[in-house]
Amino acid sequence: MVRRLKVFLTKEVTVRSGLFTGGARYKDSECPSPTNKVLAYSYETKEWRPVAPLNVARMEHSLCEVDGYIFAIGGIGEGNRLLSSVECYNPRTNCWFYVKALPEPRAAASTSAEGGNVCLQGGYSQMNHGQPSSFYYENKVKLFYNMETNK
């Protein structure tokens, strides 16, 4: 049984077997902080259960599913530090591992997945500055690149 957590602004992703939510603003005091907690909801049992935590606590990150793997991308970490790190979760092994980082830190971006690849759009790369550029992650070569500059 999962106890009630004081979290808000969570990120969720739907997979074949259920729903995953990972990272969020965790409000345990006056100042919200990022969390590395990840929960999985099973459509079959209709229950939430904790799974392996993210390697890095994050909030305002992107979360998406590609080919059965879940990607946690960028966000804001401890100390309001913008993150460029990208983690990938393998549900079969219940393990998060790092993949190639973003070319620059990014938070509050939208993601979409198509053909085994990830497109990261918008968000911001500096506090209080919007960033209209897009990044594309090619799963075959495990690399993010800027769609406008091809770098």
UniProtKB/TrEMBL annotation:
Keywords: Kelch repeat. SMART domains: Kelch. Pfam families: Kelch_1. Gene3D superfamilies: Kelch-type beta propeller (2.120.10.80). InterPro entries: Kelch-typ_b-propeller, Kelch_1. It comes from the Eukaryota. PANTHER family: KELCH-LIKE PROTEIN 22, LD33804P. This is Alpha-scruin. It comes from Magallana gigas (Pacific oyster).
